[in-house]
Amino acid sequence: MQKFHLIATETLDVWIKAGKNIFEEDATGYDSWFDKHPILFENELQAIRMLLPNEVKGLEIGVGTGRFALALGVKEGLEPAKGMAKIAAQRGIQVKEGIAEALPYEGESFDFLLMVTTLCFLDDIPKAFVEAHRVLRKNGHLVIGLIDKNSPLGRQYEQEKANNPWYKNAHFHSTEEISELLSTAGFSGFKYCQTLFSTEEIPEKPISGFGKGSFVVIQAKK
């Protein structure tokens, strides 16, 4: 266990030096988005619930302030930004400090892993997927929520990210790209769900598949 902790600490320093500490400096500002956009949040939650397994032991990687974990009943989280992790802990989430590319957990520790709008901030997605595969138990699931870069919202975020402190360093990806990387890491049995079909903030019912909604959920099996 100690060796994983040392690797995670070293890589965490790199993450912070890369200028991604806006999440550290203004964690409450990030967290306030959910209060300002409750309908969008609920739409995303409904889509995730469609593919989130019922297994007992789960972890959210990039738990942020714990909004998704709390709403979805995920009790453990991993987060590199101390300010975000503190808020998540106040919400009752058991949080460890670390990053996706160097998970501070032993192999086969979890039944499922959750990553919501986290991939766009990772430096090495293939390495993160290898790590996710390592800590999942046999037949465990990785559930990913992302903004598809080819969707209307994805294109908008890409165009405006230079002026957006939260997405300034983000790199958006398509559902096809992520599926291919998951397959390379040893995952299979993909299932998809999507929502956010409109630019308006209105309640929406998620549907299976991808290509129509801006927010896509991928479930992949180890």
From TrEMBL:
<dbReference type="InterPro" id="IPR029063">
    <property type="entry name" value="SAM-dependent_MTases_sf"/>
</dbReference>
<feature type="domain" description="Methyltransferase type 11">
    <location>
        <begin position="59"/>
        <end position="144"/>
    </location>
</feature>
<dbReference type="InterPro" id="IPR050508">
    <property type="entry name" value="Methyltransf_Superfamily"/>
</dbReference>
<protein>
    <recommendedName>
        <fullName>Methyltransferase type 11 domain-containing protein</fullName>
    </recommendedName>
</protein>
<dbReference type="GO" id="GO:0008757">
    <property type="term" value="F:S-adenosylmethionine-dependent methyltransferase activity"/>
</dbReference>
<dbReference type="Pfam" id="PF08241">
    <property type="entry name" value="Methyltransf_11"/>
</dbReference>
<dbReference type="InterPro" id="IPR013216">
    <property type="entry name" value="Methyltransf_11"/>
</dbReference>
